[in-house]
Design goal:
This protein is α+β, with helices and mostly antiparallel strands. About 30% of the residues lie in helices and about 30% in strands.
Length: about 190
């Protein structure tokens, strides 16, 4: 496994639409090795997720995992999930405000409106079907990562630029209120 460089905001790769991955390509040792690198890079950077396009590979693959993450200690746990060719279907009109950051946008956070309930379909890393419903804060994580596959950054979804904050100022001025809000969302949706 190899740690990969993460593309930063302003690099054209982040604005591409990633291409779908076929089953034969997914099964190759090269693609399986790439997925290992994606996971290792995400974990090394303490990300809650990482899209392949963020490490300069414009293919429709994301890795998501939330455990004991120092960047997001308040997020509900998500076991390691690799999504290939994911499709998100919105379930209902309910939304919530999520304070997001991104490994490709270092030292910046901002409020983004996310759908509260989604259905995610696609494949796992071995081509087995995935079909799950995700809600609450975890749904926000899935939406954030899948946005990358269409060239969308969380910055594009920030409606009020006054919510933008450095990590230090988020922790200092906004984190306590946001963590209380996250607890309400988790209590409501269980995720």
């Amino acid at each position: 496994m190899t740690l990969r460089k993460i593309a930063l905001v302003g690099h054209p790769v982040l604005r591409q639409r990633a291409r779908e991955v076929g089953r034969e390509e997914l099964e190759t040792p090269a693609m399986q090795g790439f997925i290992d690198d994606l996971i290792e890079t995400m974990r090394d950077a303490n990300g809650a997720g990482l899209a392949a396009i963020q490490i300069y590979a414009p293919v429709r693959i994301v890795a998501i995992e939330v455990g004991d993450n120092p960047r997001y200690p308040y997020k509900p746990k998500i076991p390691l999930t690799v999504l290939v060719n994911p499709v998100i279907e919105v379930l209902g009109d309910e939304t919530f405000e999520n304070y997001e950051g991104c490994l490709s946008v270092p030292n910046l956070r901002g409020k983004v409106t996310r759908h509260a309930r989604i259905r995610v379909t696609g494949w796992d890393r071995h081509g087995a079907a995935i079909d799950r419903t995700v809600a609450g804060i975890s749904a926000g994580t899935y939406q954030h990562e899948c946005d990358h596959l269409d060239g969308t950054l969380f910055l594009d979804r920030v409606k009020d630029p006054s919510t933008l904050a450095t990590w230090e100022n988020f922790e200092r001025h906004h984190q306590a209120a946001f963590v209380a809000y996250v607890k309400e969302i988790v209590a409501r949706y269980g995720q």
